Amino acid sequence: MAEKEPTTELDSRFSSDKATPVSWSEARGLLERAEIYWLSTVRPDGRPHVTPLIGIWLDGALHFCTGPAERKARNLETNTRCVLTTGGNSLTEGTDVVVEGEAVQVRDEQALRRLAAAYEEKYGPSWHFDVADGAFAGEGGRALVFAVTPQQAFGFAREGEYGQTRWRF
């Protein structure tokens, strides 16, 4: 699947005078290489829920998995809108990336096999998943797999000049 190329803009309200926008290819590279992401979902009563997890950037979307009884899966049953973030904790270096979108469950066995191989390639053999009944299957039991295709994303750069980039898809 061809990835959709976003429009890119620097928000001067939140950027240093000499800041330049971060390219989408650079942000996508950060999403591909990140080891930890933070998923924000909304509970049925409206309260936020945030949790760290591992994930894969593949075919223009961030993918993550979760057990069907976990809070994040239960939240996504009633509200598929979510945010995934990754970055660092330094005030003066790095770039944070925030992806807004809707989590869509991946059930296609071929896509799941590609994702399972990508998880093992990125995180090692302890993250091996088999595919069965439209989900991952592993030592921890059944795991639903979700894809979040960006609808909008933000980059917060802190390399010398602070800059906020917005990508609209």
TrEMBL record:
Keyword field contains Oxidoreductase: yes
Keywords on record: Oxidoreductase
Domain spans labelled Pyridoxamine 5'-phosphate oxidase N-terminal: 26-150
GO CC annotations, alphabetized: cytosol
Top-level taxon of the source organism: Bacteria
InterPro entries per UniProt: F420H2_bilvrd_red/Heme_oxyg (IPR052019), Pyridox_Oxase_N (IPR011576), Split_barrel_FMN-bd (IPR012349)
The UniProt record lists the keyword Oxidoreductase: yes
Pfam families assigned: PNPOx_N
Molecular function GO terms recorded: coenzyme F420 binding; oxidoreductase activity, acting on the CH-CH group of donors
The protein's name: Nitroimidazol reductase NimA-like FMN-containing flavoprotein (Pyridoxamine 5'-phosphate oxidase superfamily)
Species for this entry: Nonomuraea dietziae
